[in-house]
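step=encode ok
step=design start
structure_in=
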């Protein structure tokens, strides 16, 4: 019996069951009918396949459905197609593009598009839609830096040709993150009513409550088993309560909840390059800058002193932070890209060295002259605020643990839980519990290049280093990934300077977190790639491969 596409319905089951009973009665004549075996009855019941899921994986932002508002930041592949995709083995493969080719000078990228791609309203996805999306994002310039793109043209055969002004080694990664929107229907309200070209479409969005997705009937790829996904927009403790009440099939759990037992569910742990650290302003207070298009104050007189930043990098004990804040569910981190091909292993230090940290502070003029436990320099105490997202238990736990350890060094950190909106307004004047990590090295550029200051939330520390800029630019414009990786590593540390913790330390990376979920034990989530930053969406890149196993 084909349970997925069969017409074997409940009524037909009753018909055959009735026929079976009639045969027993006929054979028995006037005698009392023998009881029908329970096994026989159960054998006649059609096997049901669960085709809906309820998920509680975090407080999601509806704006994520609009690439101009951050689609690529979380790599949501549920609702939009992109030119390319990344498979479970981190290979670049075609998505909306059937294939792609690159000219010998790395300047011309050609993408013949599929002919069977349609939006959820039934209209075809065309090369004009791709052209519109890329040109719109290039003009916007906030979430995606496409300034290096010279032209985008539509060629014969539903083909897109993108000409670059210079080679760009990370461009292939951006091609996996830019969701294509319909030219005819896109406007500033698009995220409230997105038109999908991915496996699912948005059918309901209740701000702060839930998002409901249904399978896109026009989706060109493998049809997902689950026809409906309901996302409950719950805080972490409420999500766990929903799981215990049997109201959710998957919930994200922070490490502090990982030992919770829920009937019918088990813990799924996935390695990630999702890194956590401390962003520290590198310029003195009193300046002005821009964040997400708004003018903000910048600078901090304590964190702008290199001795403070370098002391924290070597003095904080990453293993203790890992055990305390993550309950061991993760790994130490020394950069944004540990264990990736572009990671410079020379940046690894013997951390937790309190005496070495105190010496760095002392050599830098920071001394505790009044024995109050806080070092000072020229009358300025080694004290500053650190913001963290109040809705994020992990960042809260890590911030408190960092502040506690910092006291051993003679540094006082005042932890403050606020919203992300507040962090973006005040974050350039204080430390911030920061995060990142992608399947590609572009964030090394966006977080550390002086050319990205005042662009979106890039380079929040206002970090400037001419040599680092040189390396980053060479990495970006390299013709091969191998050549680019050499410069990415030098930008981290060349033996004399770099943006890593042993260099200028604008961001001190501490931990790489495992993504943890409680999931129904019957749910098979298939082969997951190494997860990127953002547990909210990282799980869903292979949604069409998920199955329910009775």
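sequence_out=
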């Amino acid at each position: 019996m084909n349970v997925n596409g069969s017409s074997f319905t409940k009524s037909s089951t009753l018909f055959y069951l009735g026929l079976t009973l009639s045969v027993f009665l006929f054979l028995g004549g006037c005698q009392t009918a023998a009881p029908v075996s329970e096994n026989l009855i159960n054998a006649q019941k059609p096997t049901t396949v669960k085709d809906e899921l309820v998920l509680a994986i975090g407080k999601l932002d509806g704006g994520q459905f609009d690439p101009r508002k951050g689609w690529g930041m979380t790599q949501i592949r549920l609702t939009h197609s992109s030119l390319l995709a990344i498979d479970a083995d981190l290979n670049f493969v075609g998505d909306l593009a059937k294939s792609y080719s690159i000219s010998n000078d790395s300047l011309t990228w050609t993408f013949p598009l599929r002919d069977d791609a349609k939006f959820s309203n039934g209209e075809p996805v065309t090369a004009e839609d791709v052209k519109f999306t890329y040109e719109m994002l290039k003009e916007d310039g906030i979430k995606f830096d496409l300034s290096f793109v010279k032209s985008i043209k539509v060629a014969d055969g539903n083909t897109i040709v993108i000409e670059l002004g210079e080679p760009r080694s990370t461009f292939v990664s951006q091609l996996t993150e830019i969701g294509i929107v319909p030219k005819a229907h896109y406007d500033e309200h698009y995220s409230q009513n997105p038109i999908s070209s991915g496996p699912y479409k948005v059918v309901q969005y209740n701000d702060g409550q839930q998002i409901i997705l249904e399978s896109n009937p026009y989706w060109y790829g493998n049809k997902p088993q689950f026809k409906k996904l309901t996302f409950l927009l719950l805080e972490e403790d409420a999500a766990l309560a929903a799981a215990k009440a049997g109201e959710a099939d998957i919930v994200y759990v922070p490490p502090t909840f990982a030992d919770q037992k829920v009937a019918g569910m088990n813990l799924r742990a996935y390695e990630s390059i999702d890194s956590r650290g401390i962003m520290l302003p590198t310029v003195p207070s009193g300046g002005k800058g821009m964040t997400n298009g708004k003018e903000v104050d910048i600078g901090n007189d304590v964190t702008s002193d290199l001795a403070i930043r370098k002391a924290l990098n070597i003095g904080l004990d990453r293993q203790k932070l890992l055990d305390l804040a993550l309950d061991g569910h993760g790994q130490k981190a020394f950069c944004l890209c540990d264990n990736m091909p572009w990671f410079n292993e020379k940046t690894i230090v013997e951390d937790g060295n309190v005496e070495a940290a105190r010496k760095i502070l002392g050599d830098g003029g920071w001394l505790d002259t009044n024995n109050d436990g806080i070092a000072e320099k020229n009358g300025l105490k080694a004290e500053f605020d650190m913001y963290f997202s109040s809705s994020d238990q992990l960042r809260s736990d890590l911030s408190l643990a960092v502040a506690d350890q910092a006291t051993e060094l003679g540094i006082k950190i005042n932890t403050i839980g606020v919203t992300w909106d507040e962090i973006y307004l005040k974050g350039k004047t204080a430390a911030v519990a920061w995060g990142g990590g992608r399947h590609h090295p572009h964030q090394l550029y966006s977080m550390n290049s002086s050319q990205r200051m005042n662009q979106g939330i890039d380079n929040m520390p206002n970090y400037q280093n001419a040599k680092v800029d040189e390396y980053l630019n060479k990495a970006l414009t390299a013709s091969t990934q191998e050549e680019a990786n050499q410069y990415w590593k030098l930008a981290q540390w060349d033996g004399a300077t770099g943006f890593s913790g042993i260099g200028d330390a604008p961001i001190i990376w501490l931990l790489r977190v495992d993504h943890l979920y409680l999931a129904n034990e019957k749910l098979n989530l298939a082969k997951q790639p190494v997860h990127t930053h953002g547990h909210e969406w990282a799980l869903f890149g292979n949604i069409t491969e998920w199955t329910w196993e009775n």
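step=design ok
step=annotate ok -> Residues 10-47 form one domain.
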